[in-house]
Amino acid sequence: MHRTLTLADLSERDRQLVEAARDASVNAYAPYSGFAVGAAVRTKSGRSYSGANLENASYGLGICAEVSVMAVASAAADLDVEAIAVVGHKFTEPQDSSQLVTPCGRCRQVIFEASQVSNVDVRVFSCTGDLSQIVECTISELLPAAFGPKNLGLDEAWPEMRSQLRAAAARLAGKARVGTTSHTGLPRAPRHAASKR
Ligand SMILES: [Zn+2]
To answer: What is the CATH classification number for the domain harbouring 10?
Structure first.
């Protein structure tokens, strides 16, 4: 059920999350739409990450703030998302910041994927640019009957595959350490005897 809230209704940590999303919107690269979106996620670890929309002269290549922030959290190996906040505003018409910004269809799918990693029905805070209005719902409410890893029979697979990935990466890093070429591709200089002291 959607809940319409104000900042005063939020817990301290949820308020920090929506404010982080608002603050992240300043980092948008949005020369085409003039519409800045910031997003922030909080994970089970208690850490939070933020991102903003990233547009492109080839319009269809634009990346939403929600996708951006999920990539940031994933790159930190911390995709156990429990909550996300989204704030947007048309900065070329700053007098109008009253439009509620909800995740687009693609972003709902991306949030759903994270919810399958965290095993949490992720709470989604959709906000106006001035945070005067906040709507809270869950990703299962925003995207009912979603397609996900369970449909592919892979909902149990990732933890073990991640272990495989880390072992493979460690092997590759080990090979790099014993290799005879430096990262420049040039032969390493012979170790100087003095360096062994
Ligand atoms: Zn989107």
So the answer is: 3.40.140.10
| Cα of 109 from ligand 1 centre, angstroms | 9
Q: Tell whether 16 is covered by a domain.
A: yes
For 60-119, write each residue's pLDDT tens digit: 999 999 999 999 999 999 999 999 999 999 999 977 778 899 999 999 999 999 999 999
> Is the same domain home to 30 and 52?
yes
> Is-contact 80 162, C-beta < 8 A?
no
- For ligand 1, the distance from its centroid to the CA atom of residue 21, given in whole angstroms, is 14
| Cβ–Cβ under 8 Å, residues 37 and 67 | no
- Give yes or no: residues 164 and 82 share one domain: no
CA 94 to ligand 1 center in whole angstroms: 21
Ligand 1 (ion): which residues have CB within 5 A? 64, 104, 107
